[in-house]
Amino acid sequence: MGLMDKFEAKKLLQKLDTIQNFLSEKDLPRLERKLDAEADNLKRNMFDDWLRSIPKSVKEIFYGKLTYDQLYSKFFPSVLHSSFSKNEIVLVFSILKSRNKMEQYQLKYSEKLSNLKVCLQFIKENDRSKFLSIFQNHDIKQKLLKAKEFAEENKNVLSNIQYKRENEWDEIAESFEDLDISLKNKRFEYLNPFVNLDTEKSKEDIIFKIIRDFLKNKILFLSEQSRNGVEESIRGIWKNLKEEELSNQLNSLPIEMLKKQIDNEQIGDVLDNFDNVGQVISLSLAEVSERYGLNMQQSAEILKQSKEILNDLKSNVYPKLTLDKLKGQRLQLLHLLNAYKNYPDEQAIEEKVVIENYRKLEEKLGNLEDIAPNRYLTNFIDSITFKYWCESEAEIYRILDGCIQVNSTFRDCLNDNLNDQEIKALFEKDSATFYALIEEITGNKKSYNPSDLPDYIVHEVQKTKLNLKGFKAHLRSYQAFGSKYIFYFQRTLLGDEMGLGKTIQALAVATHLSNQGQTHCLVISPLSVLENWKREIEKWTNIKCFVFRGDKAIKEQNLSKWEESGGILLTNYSHCRILKESRKNIDIDFAIVDEAHLIKNPATKRSKNVNALIKNCKYKLLMTGTALENRLDEMINLIDFLNESLAEKVANNLNNKTYKTDIAQVYLRRKRKEVLHELPALGLTTMWSTFNEKEQDFYDQAVSEGIAGLMKMRRAAFIDEDSQKIEQIINICVDSHENSEKVIVFSFFKNYVLKLLKKKLPFLADDIISGDLSSNQRQEVIDKFSENPNQNVLLVQIDAGGFGLNIQAANRVILCEPQWKPSTENQAISRAYRMGQNRNVMVYRLLTKESVDETMMEIIHEKEDIFNTYANDSVVADAFMNNDSDKEENEAVMKKKVFQIERDRLEKKQEVVNVSE
């Protein structure tokens, strides 16, 4: 038999690698499997004993996080505090003995095994067939021969080691006398089968973590969800509301209040830089001095007087929980107060005890972890300490079980089982109790930035400056923000609720652009509000106004004047096509589209005509009081008029949380409730209209009948289906319904106006309040109207509904025509605007241009400025309500005077027509 070849060498190399590996790793698979089995048996017994000692309620906490098998895998037994069986001892020391022998064998044969590996590797790489060996180098042949001889001589070492491992080392030892070891010193070796010791030393005990998290969550939950938590929440909300109210009052307090306190011309000039006291309060002494060039004494005087005003307000500030402000924290406060009122005293006491015990358990758990932070480390504490550790652990579970048992009896007393409407109704009936609870809990007794716009937008808009030279209106803060927003973003959709002054905001922008040389503004609106636009333009601006409507020659003349000199061109939707066709190119700097929801459908001719007319405008403003947040398709269509790419982006991201941020650069909507500190409790909006041809003929005929035709003159705006006044009323009623508000419509004429409206208006009450109904019948109609959410419009004959009726459920009032006595209107309005009314009241006075309406208003009623749409609550109330009857002229005389003026006006008008013909 010859020397080995490269194939045998290759096999021996593989065998050698295996032997070196198990010598290095001291791998004893059979013994280790047996030891693992013994260890697993011990762990299982110890785990089951431990688990049986745990109360059921505590086990449920564990099982809420881990399964039985997961819990078992995380459990580390305190093996060094247990008694070993003989088998366990034999296995541990058999492994130790065998590994000791393996170490000795490895040392003895280490050099020989290394040399053998080198030789085998050389043979594997250089051994050749007889034919090829002829061409080998002589030195290689000699080295190869020696390598083969060494390998043949020593290969039996591998078989010997393999035999010993399989038949001696990986077997239970028969005696231990030859091992110089001590059970006391080597016992920790038994921990090896359970875990990697190095990593286990720093591990957090998963069982303790589950308990700690449970305690933390329970304490937090009960702190918030107990009666004590209810009290804290009430105090917190009330504090927030007080701070909010104080800030609102400071920001609405005119700077003149501060100027009156300081009799100094130089300081007064500085204070003219501020709009309100709140702006001054926010400044430091250094800021006032450095920014406005005052000395420290003057600056200190400003801040001193400001702080005195602040302290006066602070001592009296008391948030009002009125119905029209009941949302968010205010609504949450009512629910909490009701829950507190009905909270069981016994449960409240037990809650405090349980929370205290949970906190004690947290402390006990911390003490336990100070001794041994995990179960593995209990193997290295002495037996007395270990016993204390186990007893402490058991006590924690026992106390925890008791707390859980008590906790399980707690009812959910925070849910008052009332929905928002029910809690509002309860508050409306018994507000005194709610305020009493607030005082009991808080100890507090009574002695504008948009919230839904990104901060960067608010900042950029706020710093925008407008040149309002020639603009006669005083913008409220939210209106100023709206005008700046429109100008800054250039193409916008203004969706403010009706009555917030969208027209004023638009005209402010038109004024600014006109002052900047961009003088050509176009306003498109429904015909019913065209006259209103004309009056607002003439009232609040110095901009020339031209109307593109009526006779062809007049339209052409007005259009040419507008093109030549600039100004505001007014037209209605139906004339957009005519306007576009009248010129090849129309240069429009600023286009305003009022009631823009009328072009929500891009497929209609109306929408196409408007778009064709204003498509290339740099500044475009669409206005609508209709809420669009829940009409996304309509919103997208309107945005498409302004910014096609943005409309496409929004359409593709409707479910994306960023959609509101995306539209923030184009859509601005404020509600009356959101700017309540800027609005009065009572507001007046005058809405103008014009007669159509049929109405004008009826009116002229009535005038020709003499004083007997005066009643017909007053109701002429309601004789035709196509009435602008009816359209205005319908729009107000629909808007009110969409905002869950109720409307009272007053008219003198039951048969000719109210009965006609009954056929036209939606969401009506059961009947018209008139003299035909008894007192009981009237009250039944009003009660149902007040309670039924589907009844939003109440028709009232003004003489019948002006006295003795309380209709606080409504907060919008429509006056269809002027009355001969101001007190008649005042008393009608007071049916809604009276004690117990918890919403802003908006009054809409409908007037027809060049009619008896206009004449009656000029002669009988005080000027509109006295009753400013946005005046202060108390000022408006006093000015509006204190029109004593003794100031009113004799009605008969007044009627004759009004009729004579109207007849003279029509005669002059006819003379002009005759001359022109």
TrEMBL record:
Keywords: ATP-binding, Helicase, Hydrolase, Nucleotide-binding. InterPro entries: Helicase_ATP-bd, Helicase_C-like, P-loop_NTPase, SNF2-like_sf, SNF2/RAD54-like_C, SNF2_N, SNF2_RAD54_helicase_repair. Residues 483-645 form the Helicase ATP-binding domain. PROSITE patterns: HELICASE_ATP_BIND_1 (PS51192), HELICASE_CTER (PS51194). The keyword Coiled coil does not apply. The keyword Nucleotide-binding applies. GO terms for molecular function: ATP binding; helicase activity; hydrolase activity. Residues 725-882 form the Helicase C-terminal domain. It holds the Pfam family Helicase_C. This is DEAD/DEAH box helicase. It comes from Lactobacillus gasseri.
